[in-house]
Q: What sequence folds into this?
């Protein structure tokens, strides 16, 4: 096997897609699973919540392990764990057992998510890495959109347990492809202690911290807006359930368009400038949305337009933010990818919870995304200051 051959981008995208898709695919089948296992709705909802938590934990754990033992080795181990957990989940006879197995499954999924990003960055200069991350995003964003539809169809036709059979099969296909198509990487010469030092240093490196915060504020803050949008359409504009889906799909197409734009612009723009452009779209739309809400001028077209611009900024800023973050320490790219991913998920959860505290969903979402945009701007300013002060001769931090 040619060790210099880059890993196929479509395969890295499928591996990351599997991790994201698994979080959502069971949602429409929860009532069927609850009836089969004799569980209530709250118990079954834990199967989704614990997966999200495990996904974040898995990224934090397996990133440094991969820097120590090699990306490909840990990726193979993670996929094996994912496959075995998927098979076990399909045979679970109690809700508590299913929840525990879903946690194990999420750890395997976290391996795929964090290492697919790190492998895509390996061996590329910053602009090419940003283009590759943007192309991967096109696949990853399919997960939340298609997995509930797929899960509901499978549960209706063959039962909810077949969902896990499909996930196990998907994991097997990815594993075989990894064994055949992803080049092996030499085991790091660094000791476990050195890897831990790199890991801890990243967590207190101002540039890396600022980049992770900016990336989270400009991307996963979207969950505050996406979560509030159905309530706005129903309560404020009287939409029925059947009309909500197409309107949200129209807006969320912005992520796709932003990812496409990032892949096209990456070869021509500095990576930090591309992040600034994406952040500008997020800030412009979030403050525009806040003004519309506060002045009582929000309409359906205005909601869809501001969401579309906001999500375009999300798709545009995500790839360069990730590329810059994991470029800080080339010896700890997997660790950086894991910390960055966990930070994104934490910011997304905080924004969702903050928005939900408001009685008025439009006002809650508007204030939350505007506050996140301000935090992102401050983090972006800190990134530029620290780059000029600490890394004046590190071209891969600009692209």
A:
């Amino acid at each position: 096997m040619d060790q210099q051959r880059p890993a196929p981008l479509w395969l890295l995208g499928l591996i990351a897609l599997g991790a994201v898709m698994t979080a959502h695919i069971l949602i429409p089948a929860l009532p069927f699973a609850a009836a089969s296992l004799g569980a209530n709705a709250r118990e079954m909802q834990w199967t989704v919540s614990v997966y999200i938590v495990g996904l974040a934990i898995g990224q934090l754990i397996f990133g440094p392990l991969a820097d120590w033992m090699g990306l490909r080795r840990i990726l193979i181990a993670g996929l094996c764990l994912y496959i075995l957990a998927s098979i076990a989940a399909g045979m679970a006879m109690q809700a508590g057992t299913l929840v525990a197995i879903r946690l194990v499954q999420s750890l395997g999924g976290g391996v795929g998510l964090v290492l697919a990003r790190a492998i895509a960055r390996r061996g590329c200069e910053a602009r090419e890495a940003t283009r590759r991350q943007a192309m991967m995003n096109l696949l990853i964003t399919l997960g939340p959109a298609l997995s509930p539809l797929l899960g509901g169809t499978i549960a209706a036709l063959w039962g909810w347990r077949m969902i896990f059979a499909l996930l196990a099969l998907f994991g097997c296909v990815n594993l075989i492809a990894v064994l055949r198509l992803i080049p092996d990487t030499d085991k790091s010469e660094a000791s476990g202690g050195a890897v831990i030092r790199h890991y801890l240093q990243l967590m207190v490196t101002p540039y890396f911290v600022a980049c992770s915060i900016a990336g989270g504020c400009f991307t996963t803050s979207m969950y505050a807006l996406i979560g509030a949008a159905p309530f706005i359409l129903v309560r404020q504009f009287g939409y029925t359930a059947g009309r909500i889906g197409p309107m949200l799909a129209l807006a969320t197409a912005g992520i796709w368009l932003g990812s496409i734009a990032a892949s096209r612009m990456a070869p021509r723009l500095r990576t930090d400038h591309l992040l600034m452009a994406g952040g500008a779209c997020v800030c412009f739309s979030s403050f525009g949305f806040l003004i519309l809400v506060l002045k009582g001028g929000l309409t359906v077209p205005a909601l869809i337009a501001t969401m579309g611009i906001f999500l375009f900024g999300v798709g545009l800023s995500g790839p360069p933010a990730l590329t810059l973050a994991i470029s800080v320490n080339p010896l700890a790219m997997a660790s950086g990818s894991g910390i960055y991913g966990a930070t994104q998920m934490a910011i997304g959860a905080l924004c969702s919870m903050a928005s939900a505290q408001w009685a008025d969903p439009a006002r809650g979402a508007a204030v939350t995304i505007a506050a996140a945009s301000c935090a992102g701007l401050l983090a972006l300013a800190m990134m530029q200051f620290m780059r000029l002060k600490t890394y004046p001769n590190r071209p891969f931090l600009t692209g």
In short: The CA atoms of residues 6 and 183 lie 7 Å apart. The first helix runs from residue 9 to 24. The domain at 9-189 is CATH 1.20.1250.20 (Growth Hormone; Chain: A;). The two ends are 30 Å apart (CA to CA).
